[in-house]
Amino acid sequence: MIAENLTTISTVMDIPVYAMVLLALVPTIATVVSFGRHVFGFNSFNIYVPIVTALVFLQIGLLEGLIISTLIFLITIYTRKLLINYRMHYYVRISFIYTIVCFAIFGFLVLLSLISAKTGIHLDKYLNFQPIFQIILLVTLVEEYFSTVVKEGENKVFVMFLETLAISVIGFVLISSTFFVKIIVNNIWILLLLFPLNIILARYEGLRFSELVRFKSVLFSEMRRIEENEDEKDKKKKKKNKNKKIVDSKTNSSGVSTGKFIW
Amino acid sequence: MNKLSLFLKASSNVLGVNERNLSFTKKYNVGKGRAVADDKYKTHNVLTKAGIPEPELLKVIKNEKDLEKFSFDSIPKSFVVKPAMGLGGSGNLLIFSKSKKNGHWIGVNGKKYTENDLKAYCLAILNNAFSLKFAKKQDIVLIQERIHIKKDLKRISYSKGLPDIRIVMYKTIPLMAMLRLPTKGSRGKANLHLGGIGVGIDLATGITTTAVTYDDVIERHPDTGMLLSGFSIPNWKEVLKIAIKAVDVVGLGFGAVDIVIDENRGPLILELNSRPGLSIQIANQEGINGRIKRVKGLKPKSLTHARKIGMNLFGGEVEDTITDVTGMQVVGFIAFANFYGRYDATVRKVKVKNDTGALYTSIDRDLAKDLGYEKALKDFDDLGLNRHFNDRKEAVALKHEASKFIRSHPEIVGLSATKSGNITSIRPKVVIGIEMEGKKVEAIANIADRSNMVYKAIIGRRDMRRSFLVDPNKLFSRYM
């Protein structure tokens, strides 16, 4: 996936291209997550989860990564539901979930090999689940999912999971495109641009994109109110001028008042 | 004004999560105020010291040892279990009775709990299951008495669960208020993000305005079908008073106070919150930032002053609605009015009584002179009718006779024989203009000697009929 014939500092300095790309990936995704959160209102599972997920996607492929992450997430959520009525310590509950997730993955791999043996279709041609270490890395996210679902509730967590996957895919696409990799490897200083971007984000106080939608009705009524205030100011100005005129005409007239009602 | 700058102005009036977390909780909440507000046990201690009413605390469980020693049979049958550092009401468990058959406690949704279940729940709290993620300390279990909610409030709320009132405060000035109602979907909890209903409250009157659930505007309660707007909160002034007191004692710079109204004890402080949810803006259809801009420079002289600032600045929505629907202006019993003479451009500002017991508007002789009716008064006096009659019939007869002379007068439009007490007097009637709260009417007023009266003018039914509604609750504003 990664372009190899690059005449770069990496060859001069004897640093593998791969290492540079992976190092670049981490701050990039971190910035994407914070940008997505504060400007668009995406809710992901911290920054750790999208970074790990994107890294694993890069190693074992997008499709495999998506399948395994979804599997782990769903099993975590439903095992928690199963265990919710049993009284036990917090850590024991998590280790239960770990155990069940690992068994499920084992079962899933067995199932795949069974299917390929029975039907003669070699699924491993299309799906590569060999790099088990990366899969274990995904399994460790169970804890993060669990603590979030306890705090935020199920409905919200599903949305969060989809948004996390979206951010991870963005990271994956960025880092696996030759164009991006070329830029990074040839001009490693470009990562320094992340600093000003993060500095701007650090003090960003505007409304998030999701809040514009949420507060739509408030925004409309505020706009109406501001407009009304402006109109009133205009009216008052006009009225003042009018009053002046009447007083003027009165002082000019000789004796008999000709002023009418003011309204 | 172009659309973009209008939009930018409007969006700067609305408070978002970014700004709340960055500026509001950190900039305004310096010192220990925030630490106290985030911990319900600390809040309890501070409030008790200051003598501010709150629900009775039945039991505090600080660690596992306390929990082992404690028996749920030793406290009343209905209670609430709470984590001291819980976030957004998610850890509260409401128990409202105990079944006599098997000794199980019954929760809000009819769910049954054994003593072991309740202890497991407390253990989860002690293990920081509901507290802030980075909590350094072990959480504490608080067991409070269950509140017997005020009957008036019960009427519009879902029967199981606790409706409460949230008031967002900037220092000691109340900014915005909302009534939070639990629903079946929220499992008896009033928190908006759990499915409760938020109803905006007009700060001046305590009358509800717009209702929202999950950020959508609704009209009726989904479970009870009751209309949610136009409901008057009981003990409204008292509610504002204790909210202000609590914030003052705790020293919170920006935050929210949650208050419940007990049938017997009145308003009680439920908790304080240093990071209030933002949906209250939808329930009030107005941004918090816009309101803060209006009070930022103000320094209230006292707590009462702070309350009055909030009530004066952020009320009037209900009146506006009435004005929109009926076309009538709501005025107080006593109000300031501008009087215009027919032939004079000068304006007189007078404190008047809006007297629905009188038919005609009546003004003082001095005021009439000021308005340019000096000649008319002199002409009237020349007729020799400016005296009191003990016999009403005599006065009426004289009035009829004099009317013939008056008919050709350019200013006096008629005479009236008015009885006040035992005495009848004849008064001349003239046309004047009255302006109250920005609304103008042409009125026919009789001129009488009111120099001994408190109000130099009263406005009668005839001239209010098409334009004004009198609200006895409304106070006149000195800064009109």
TrEMBL record, chain A:
Asked whether the keyword Transmembrane helix is assigned, the reply is yes
Entry keywords, A to Z:
Membrane, Transmembrane, Transmembrane helix
Statement: the UniProt record of this protein carries the keyword Transmembrane? yes
Which ranges are annotated Basic residues under compositional bias?
Answer: 235-244
Domain of life assignment: Bacteria
Q: Where do the segments described as Disordered lie?
A: 230-263
Domain (7 transmembrane helices usually fused to an inactive transglutaminase) ranges: 22-218
TM segment ranges: 12-35, 47-78, 90-115, 127-146, 158-181, 187-204
What InterPro entries has UniProt attached to this entry? Answer: 7TM_transglut
Pfam hit, one? 7TM_transglut
Name assigned to this protein: 7 transmembrane helices usually fused to an inactive transglutaminase domain-containing protein
Which source organism?
A: candidate division WWE3 bacterium CG10_big_fil_rev_8_21_14_0_10_32_10
Q: What is the lineage of its organism?
A: Bacteria, Katanobacteria
